[in-house]
Amino acid sequence: MILPIVAYGDPVLKRKTVPVSSEHPDIGKLIADMYETMYKASGVGLAAPQIGLSLRLFVADASAFDEPEAAGFRQVFINPEITDRSGDHTSFNEGCLSIPNVREEVKRPDIISIRFYDENFDHHEKQYHGIVARIIQHEYDHLEGKLITDYMSPLKRQIMKKKLTDISRGIVDVDYRMRFPLRKNQ
Asked: Do 129 and 87 touch, CB atoms closer than 8 A?
């Protein structure tokens, strides 16, 4: 089932998430719905807060990128913990499904080490690099209540204020379902 993506301004996007229990009801369906929602919105990652759930869970699929490390990368991350960040810090113009039509240059480390559980609650400790590491860090930020707007300078945030408020009100052109915190009669 395709779920509405929560728009900028909803408090769930700024809240630190809570761990997911292996007893969480219908976790398989939730993960399937998150993938379906992400693909419908042409995204490469989707975190639980973006569908209104304050859970430490995200899904990612880097196959849209023509990079060697992205080939075949599709992963569920439950209760992830980034344990190390290293390598060069590179910039990339990132977007976010919760903040449509807004992009920001975000500088991130090229290499991360992360431990997490998959959809079967099997434990993994892996290292990722390049675009895959970037996608993971972006989605991980959502679990920590951080958005790409937090990487903007105060001046840029001030310049973007009207556009961000419009997004919260639903005054934005998107081709996927969204839930807007300041829109009446949704």
From this structure: yes
Residue 101, classified by CB atoms within 10 Å of its CB into exposed (0-12), middle (13-18) or buried (19+), is exposed
For 5-179, give the CATH class.
Answer: alpha beta
Residue 106, C-beta contacts closer than 8 angstroms, at least 6 positions apart: 91, 92, 94, 138, 148, 151
Name the token pair of 174: 């998107």
81 catalytically annotated: no
**Active-site annotation holder among 67, 94, 125, 139:** 139
Q: Which residues contact 142 (CB under 8 A, 6 or more apart)?
A: 13, 17, 47, 48, 49, 50, 58
Backbone angles phi, psi at 160, to 5 degrees: -85, -5
Which of 41-45, 63-67, 92-96, 160-164 has the weakest average pLDDT?
Answer: 63-67
**Beta-ladder partners of 105:** 93
Say how far apart CA 35 and CA 44 lie, in whole Å: 9
Instruction: Using DSSP bridges, classify how beta strands 5-6 and 178-179 pair: parallel, antiparallel or unpaired.
Output: parallel
Smallest CA-to-CA distance from 180 within 2, 6, 59 is with 6
Residue 100's pLDDT is what?
A: 98
At residue 35, what is the residue type? Answer: Y
